[in-house]
Here is the input.
Amino acid sequence: MKAKKLSAVLLSLTLVAGGLAGCGGDKQTKVEYDDGFAENVLRVTYDHECQSGDVRQTTSDYIIPMNCFDTLVQTVSKDDGTTELQPCAAEKWEVSKDGLTYSMHLRKDIKFTNGEPMTSDDVLYTVDSMLDPERATMNYYWMDMIKGAKDVLDGKTKTVEGKGIIIHDDYNFDIVLSESYAPFLSTLSVPAWSILNREACDAGDKAGKGKKTTLFGSEPEYTIGSGPFIVKEWVLNDHIYLEANKDYWQGAPKIDGILIKVATDTDTEKMLFESGQTDIFEIDKAKSLIPTYQDDDQWSDNIVSTVIMGGDYLVLNENVKPLDNVKVRKALQKGIDRQAIIDSLYEGTGTLAKGIFPPTLICYNKNLPDIEYDPEGAKQLLKEAGYENGFKLKLAKKATEKSECLEVIQEQLKEIGVEVEIEQVDEASYYDIRGNGELASHIESWWADFNDPDNFLYTYFATATTKERSVNYKDKDVIKRVEAARHMTDNDARMKEYLDLEEKIIDDDAAFVPLWHAEKIRLVQDRVKNFVPQWAGWGDCSYYSVELETAE
Amino acid sequence: MLFNNKKRNEAVDILADRIVAGFSPAQDRPKGTDWIPKRATEPIRIEEASEALIAPSETIKDQLASMFKNNKVALVSAIVIVVFIIGTLFAPLFAPCDPYVQDLGNRLAAPSIHHLLGTDNYGRDILSRMMYGGRVSLLVGIVPTCIYMAIGTILGLIAGYCGGIVDSIIMRVADVFMAFPSMLLAILISYTLGAGMLTIFCALSFVSWGGTARVVRSEVLSLKEKEYVEAANSIGVKTWVILLKHILPNCVPTLIVLFTMNVPGNILTESGLSFLGIGAQPPSTSWGLLVFQMKKYLSKSPIATLAPGIAILILVVAFNFLGDALRDKLDPQLKD
Amino acid sequence: MAKYIIKRILVSIPLIIVTILIVFLLLQVVPGNPIAVMMGEKANPEVIAKVTEEMGLNDPLPKRFFDYLVNLVHGDLGSSYKLNRPIAGLIADAFPNTLKLAITSAIVAWIIGIPAGIVSAIKKDTLLDRFLMGFSLVGISLPVFWAAMLLQYIFGYSLGILPISGYATAKHMILPAFVLGWASSGTIARLTRSSLLGIMKNDYIRTARAKGIGETLVVVKHGLKNAMIPVVTMMAMQFASLLSGAVLTETVFGIGGIGVLMVSAINARDMPLLQGSVIFSTMIIILGNMVADLLYSVLDPKIKEQ
Here is the structure.
């Protein structure tokens, strides 16, 4: 009977309400781990299946390379918020005056986990295989400024030996560039420059019966690096286990291993963390939870916040009317109350952006003028531009976009007469349309790969990239300057040039509406000690320094 | 031998109808109909033949009236559906607040006098958003169902009546559509056309006609053997007239029941698709999208994600109850 | 019978080829480049163009289609663009999870549904009947993803008695199996009930009743076997459908099965993976169709006699 059905529904609702109001979220003192791994294992989560452990096959999932491989140089963040390049696999280096030759000296005590020592030949192999067109790698652009690289990329030669990489002996070699690239040394610290072992990679190719189908990077047995952890186990869509490398040249890690669990859902992650099943929870993915934790005595001390070296920008397409009018763009800059969004949606985390460069970047300009929220001023500017009655603006949103600010921006711009239509597209279509330079407006979240302004400006204001990012910046002069700045050898002049460029682009031309610089916020369990976040605030991170306090 | 027999083939077809009814794209588990017009399997009796000679439309109206009189559950269900339809269709009249107005200072508020179901993550009134969202959910539930049932009926009529190669072709095409994972097809269509309501409409309208076609076809197969059809044929009445005047009306009860059973399937599918991220676009919404959007606030404001789910549940239950009652009433074989 | 099976398989081959063609064409029409998706925010236009060329994605469509078919005949399903692993391996890894979910949900569905249907039929029109049918109806009407989410929250998180996600142990399967099983049991219960009722009206039942045997015995002895025929075929169909992947449930509970594989393949425009999983899923459904047909013809005495 319907009545019976109704009461059954009501009963279940009560149960539900009771369950929800009830317990859950109390810290566990002694945790029984569901996963079957030892206590002294750090447990983290990944919100999708990790693409690969091979830097030649992934441009975004770097958790395995960052923990299982070494780069020549590393970027380390210091207490004062700046970063510094420190030796890693290379113990020292010299740079020639013309900025073309980098003489590198490898440490002599680095061994890969297959027993092979790391030598100059491995560095050569790393470069050659990254450039190899038969591998269809996506990260080759990190190395294409090396002399001879273009020929390898075009399939004309097989190696840059003797041209781009000159080997003096097992531990000493030179990297020669085809033209000077000022941030080159910085770029040597990116995960794409993880040094690979020739023998191990060849074995992976052989076992997989081909370069494109190599088992290196997907099978633990064949994914061999020199780093503090070893890929031990990989169950697709479930977990990856990285075991500590007792023979690591910097010393064995203090933890037994890292367990990376796949948890596609933020709610699942939250539940896993609160029940103690995982050790780190990236709560910036679910910012509404932040105040709950801040107010909760149990958890308020466990919040680790890192400034992200990056920025969020509302990108405007100068090919789309009326965005080609600088007054219109400036009006949009004035028409968005960014602080309100930070305060409400982002629970106060993040700092207002004035320009493109984030506060921790080496040439951050703290003297840039603030961008005021001024709806009246915005309306005035629109009137001057001839759009007194406002206009329609399309704002694109990725289906997987976790950002909620779009709808607030929509409401705010309504006040100045701009009618925003949010177009949701699935991720692949989004990149397609953006790549054609056809997105009218969209929000970009860029974070630094290396600590240099070129990483920011070149991405949006070079000839090819300005179309690819749907900016279509019109000032050809500025674009030429951006492309030229990479080659400047005088560092002071170069920094000044970048500051100049930023002012022109943001203040004069209002190419973007700078939004904010976000923070990477994590909740970390009590037992996790010495956790060092990645210097740029990335999600992927090296856990080498971590120590776990075992419960009594 | 077991498999060389014409009647055997027909029986397989009938079986196929039963089986095929399980292939609606309704979310994860196959929505089966536990009801197949029994006419197709039982020998024809004199009473029924004469019953069939009566103009069917009158009988249906009377049957519906008496059904509602006797079956309280069906009545309540029908009322619930009507209430939902009116409430959402006239949402601009009935909704307490503007569903688009944001109030960042009052986000995720608990239910209160001003906001009977609380506010969402932008401070918008949930009840109003549900009323407006209901339009989308209902529209997407009903309109595509009408479309694909129309397609399926036409094709089923043609296939059943013409037989032979036309029949084979149509049924093979139906097979392809049915074997293809329908959620996938819906997703692919929506990526091609861009996310949005039009897309969902297209995706849902053209994917599920196979089941209807098969059922109609089997109805036609049995009906076309009936005496009055043969009689009409022999005096030279045109094919399409026969189809329209004699066969189609007899399919109507079947179609009505199928309709009430397919609509909830579509509503659930739409909510599933919105849950996956394709579907209604912000700032407009649908119930499925509401469940999806508010899911992450489950601990802060459970009602935000519970309410739309319950609304879906109630509406679908109502449709199913109604469908049951209609089936009980309109299928003569099950009459006591 | 063997001839029938072979005939069915032969008929299915064009069906599969058509399916492959449809997927090919659809992915061509849909905007989006798998390389661009992989590079995501770090997209670099020159790299995208170059790698697209290197992976053979710019080759003419007929060539790609033909190459794919040739490889398929040799048993090579290709490699996923995104994960760079052989497709066969990915499916082989994902399918057991879907299988686990399908088996456990099916068992739940049958254990709940069949007895419920039988009891309802026997006790027709009583309160028990109405309650059971109401319960079944709610099962069919449930938005599965919503119910799954709710149960996960209550039992996994608030009460902490069941694992939140994953599929390693039997304990992990309880919630998902229950959610899907309840939904499927509704259909089974209703079908059992109506089928049994239909049988019970038949003459020979009336005769048995006239003989004075108890109601239950009447049902069990004479009606059940025949009544179960459509039910068994429905069970086979539901199982086949479950095997082809329950996307929503898998997503909520984090079960890496075929459904999730398909959806992620679409999102990444990973053609080989999508093709592979769709072919697999279609074959399962065709197989299920065939088994159900066979079951029906084997079980139904009326048809046997002909």
